[in-house]
Specification:
The complex is a heterodimer of chains A (about 120) and B (about 120). Chain A is built from no helices and eleven strands. Chain A has about 120 residues and is mostly beta strands. In chain A, strands 2, 4, 5, 6, 9, 10 and 11 form a seven-stranded mixed beta sheet that branches. A four-stranded antiparallel beta sheet of chain A has the order 1-3-8-7, with no helix packed on it. With about 120 residues, chain B is mainly beta. In chain B, a hairpin with a 5-residue loop joins strand 7 and strand 8. The chains are: A mainly beta (about 120), B mainly beta (about 120).
Chain lengths: ~120, ~120
């Protein structure tokens, strides 16, 4: 248990469905991330939230919509996905600082998403 | 943008053999981190290197950060079956500032290590 909890662990959805992934951390971290991990690609950073403000959006398609209502929770809303969006979606958190204050990223166990 | 390249992509060894994975960044890094992901699991932090030329050891694992802070390596001595997994390096770009990039950990593709008992 890393202190970062993701639900659900597995999700199968049709291309017309709308679903949401949830991430929760109680580590007191100030930054949260969504990563996508496909079979043949490295960890791809999707979104970064720092102090509940989105600070990075890595050209992610609009069918992925993040939400960070508070520093402990992060959501990824999904709609009209494509089969190629099937992947492991990992949430992470860290305590980020300007200089020297960086800590490691703590990852959740991920949500295995299959789009049919 | 910053790129982090990691080689080899796969490595299969006999138990007891040594293993090394290399990480190279297209830009100078402020620090580099190493993670291990067991099959079916999630990445777990191993270590962070900050100083130029830094070497750190964790039992059979030796981590190095290059003098120019653009490359790093992880060496495992006498591999065991418990070492199986994917090893990722992740670097933070030096001089990153407000605007978000200070928060960006750029991961390499990882090296999948398999060990034959």
């Amino acid at each position: 248990e890393t202190g970062v909890t993701q639900t659900p662990r597995h999700l199968v959805m049709g291309m017309t469905n709308k679903k949401s992934l949830k991430c929760e951390q109680h580590l007191g971290h100030n930054a949260m991330y969504w990563y996508k991990q496909s079979a043949k690609k490295p960890l791809e950073l999707m979104f970064v939230y720092s102090l509940e403000e989105r600070v990075e959006n890595n050209s992610v398609p609009s069918r992925f919509s993040p939400e960070c209502p508070n520093s402990s929770h992060l959501f990824l809303h999904l709609h009209t996905l494509q089969p190629e969006d099937s992947a492991l979606y990992l949430c992470a958190s860290s305590q980020d600082g300007w200089i020297g204050g960086d800590t490691e990223a703590f990852f959740g166990q991920g949500t295995r998403l299959t789009v049919v | 943008g910053q790129q982090v390249m990691q080689i080899p992509q796969y490595q299969h060894v006999q138990e007891g053999e040594d293993f090394t994975t290399y990480c190279n960044s297209s830009t100078t890094l402020s620090n580099i981190q190493w993670y291990k992901q067991r099959p079916g699991g999630h990445p777990v932090f191993l270590i962070q290197l900050v100083k130029s030329g830094e070497v750190k050891k964790q039992k059979r694992l030796t981590f190095q950060f290059g003098e120019a802070k653009k490359n790093s390596s992880l060496h495992i001595t006498a591999t065991q079956t418990t070492d199986v997994g994917t090893y990722f390096c992740a670097g933070r770009e030096w001089g990153a500032n407000s605007g978000g990039s200070n928060y960006k950990l750029t991961f390499g593709k990882g090296t999948l290590l398999t060990v034959n008992p």
